[in-house]
Task: inverse folding
C-alpha cells in the first residue's frame, strides 16, 4: 500500500493522477447517457438504463452502501482503479474471482478453478495474497479437498468486511470520487436547464 509519499513518491502520484483522469473521462463519456462507449475498464453498462438507473443515480448510489457499489459494474471499476493507487487491489480481485467461481456448474471446472484461486490469492506468499487470518486460510485449504461453490465463502466474507471498513470509506473521501459526485449531482440540473432553454418548434 502507498502509505507515505516518501515510500513511493513518483508512482503513487502518477497512479492517483491516473485515477482522477480516468474517472473524469468516464464521467464525460457517461454523462446524461450521451455516450455509451467504453473507456478502458469504465464501460457503461446499458443494462442500467433498462433498470431505470441513469449515470448520476449510479454514482450517487455508491456512497449509500458498499453493496450498491459492488452491484454496480461501473462502481467496481472505479473502486478497483482507486485500490490500484493504494497497491491494494488484491482483495477486490479475489472477491470478484469468487463471484465468478460460484457461477460454475461443472465439478471438474470447480476443482480446477478453486486451486487456481487458492494459489493466486490464498496460500502463504501467493502473488496476490489477501489479508485473512491463519484459521480462515486453513479452513479454505481443507475445503479444497472437495471443492464446492461455497468453499471460499469464509475467506470472501473476510475480505469483503476488510474492504468495507478500510478502503471503501477512503474511496468515498477521495478527491476524484467527490468531484465525480459533484458533477453527477449537477447533471440533472444541467439537463433540466437545457431543456427549458430550448425553444419549442411547431
Result:
Amino acid at each position: 500500500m502507498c502509505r507515505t509519499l516518501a515510500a513511493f513518491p513518483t508512482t503513487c502520484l502518477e497512479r492517483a493522477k491516473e485515477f482522477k483522469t480516468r474517472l473524469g473521462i468516464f464521467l464525460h463519456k457517461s454523462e446524461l447517457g450521451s455516450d455509451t462507449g467504453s473507456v478502458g475498464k469504465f464501460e457503461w453498462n446499458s443494462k442500467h438504463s433498462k433498470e431505470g438507473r441513469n449515470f448520476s443515480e449510479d454514482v450517487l448510489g455508491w456512497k449509500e452502501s458498499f453493496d450498491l457499489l459492488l452491484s454496480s459494474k461501473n462502481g467496481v471499476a472505479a473502486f478497483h482503479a482507486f485500490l490500484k493507487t493504494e497497491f491494494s487491489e488484491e482483495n477486490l480481485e479475489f472477491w470478484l474471482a469468487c463471484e465468478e467461481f460460484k457461477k460454475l456448474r461443472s465439478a471438474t471446472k470447480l476443482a480446477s478453478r478453486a486451486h487456481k484461486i487458492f494459489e493466486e490469492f490464498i496460500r502463504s506468499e501467493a502473488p496476490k495474497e489477501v489479508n485473512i487470518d491463519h484459521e480462515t486460510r486453513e479452513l479454505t485449504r481443507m475445503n479444497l479437498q472437495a471443492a464446492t461453490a461455497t468453499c471460499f465463502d469464509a475467506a470472501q466474507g473476510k475480505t469483503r468486511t476488510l474492504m468495507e471498513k478500510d478502503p471503501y470509506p477512503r474511496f468515498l473521501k477521495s478527491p476524484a470520487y467527490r468531484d465525480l459526485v459533484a458533477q453527477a449531482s449537477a447533471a440533472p440540473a444541467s439537463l433540466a436547464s437545457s431543456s427549458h432553454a430550448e425553444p419549442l418548434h411547431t
